[in-house]
Amino acid sequence: MYVIVGVTGGIAAYKTVQLVRLLVLDGHEVHVVPTDDAVRFVGIPTWEAISRHPVTTSVHDDVARVRHVALGQAADLVIVAPATANFLAKMAAGLADDLLGTSLLATTAPVVVAPAMHTEMWRHPATRHNVEVLRSRGVQIIGPEDGPLTGGDVGPGRMSEPERIHAFATTLLSPREDLAGLRVLVTAGGTREPIDPVRYIGNRSSGRQGVAVALAAAERGAHVVLVAAHADAEVLFQARAHSRIEVASAPTAADLAAEVRARTAAADVIVMAAAVADYRVAAASDRKLAKEETGGEVTLRLVETEDILAALVRDRRPGQTIVGFAAETETDAAALLERARRKRRRKGVDLLAVNEVGWEKGFESPQNTLMLIDAADEVVATVSGSKRDVADALWDAVLALR
Length: 402
Ligand code: CTP
Hints:
By secondary structure, the chain is an alpha/beta fold. It has helices at 13-25, 44-51, 67-74, 85-93, 99-106, 119-123, 125-136, 162-173, 208-219, 233-240, 253-263, 291-294, 308-314, 333-347, 387-401; strands at 2-7, 29-34, 77-83, 111-115, 140-141, 145-148, 154-158, 183-188, 193-196, 199-201, 223-228, 245-249, 269-272, 279-281, 302-304, 321-328, 351-356, 367-374, 379-386. It folds into two domains: 2-173, Rossmann fold; 183-401, Rossmann fold (3-Layer(aba) Sandwich). The chain contains 15 helices and 19 strands. The strands form five sheets. It has an eight-stranded mixed β-sheet with strand order 12-11-8-13-16-17-18-19, with helices on both faces. It has a five-stranded parallel β-sheet with strand order 2-1-3-4-5, with helices on both faces. Helix 1 runs parallel beside helix 2 (44-51) and helix 4 (85-93) crosses helix 7. It is globular and about 80 Å long. The two termini are 34 Å apart.
């Protein structure tokens, strides 16, 4: 395949060298098109050596072969990595003042963009808007990831690792549509049970794992309904932007139960990844509790919420696959397995995804480890990796069951 790798002026350009190498090793014809700024970070000789093709930045080079449009016309895939905030703005505006700009306007191939910038720039409304515009035109955005940035700050902004971009590019060059036609319902995030109008009982779920499950399914061809309790805005943003994901929000356990109930009949597979509160405040106050009135002590009476998963299993229709999640703090492997098997049986699910959690483990991290237990109480897989990798393994297991 003919792949164009556009490189714009960010320090992450050094990682793109590895991306180009991986694509070349796969046997693709790779043409690197850097911007003038990009070659201040990684020079033309590097790109030429690694891609084994001549590299230019200007529309005035190789004019005889009309290279400014020929590259884009020939491409099967265009990847821009890293994409700076400035370049996203140029793309959104359709500017074409260099070879990468003209190539992007001349192509009808899928375009993948891997942004890299500081968190503030990524969160700026201008960048948000540009990303929305690009997505609405079908451009696929990969990352940015959460983690340490070059200035020593931490947050979303790191370019996705070259291996991840490569894997994504590979699926586009030979799309895996093994979930095509499947209707999937995924819940994600943590519910918040009100105490009064400003306070709640909640949990630490960021929604990352559940949203990764939804995204993996959508990218593999499924139609996905994502019922989201409270989740990190950054994480939900990705799901909302996907054309095959419909997002419904459900702040409390009762809302989640209602949303799920309304949508179960249409689902072939239901994945309950949400951290649903087991208890809610029996009588939430409709006015803010004030110290003046409570006098030194407050007692909250908690009552059990509806077990949504239990109801799903009870009312399941034939052919429906139901997956539950269990976050456990047990650290002894044998005891964890026993506990997980008991829970699997109690819940009656087809698959239980178990993850060990603790203050330092599971939550707020892009990584996760899941143990998958099937209806015969067998551990069908234990997977560690990015929440996305783990999500793909979960879908592999679901497919194997069906
Ligand atoms: N769940 C649910 N409704 C609830 C609580 C939990 O559907 N009210 C679902 C979760 O989405 C998850 C699964 O049940 O898929 C496991 O929840 P968990 O709280 O671990 O199960 P419990 O039976 O409450 O066990 P424990 O006493 O260990 O909390």
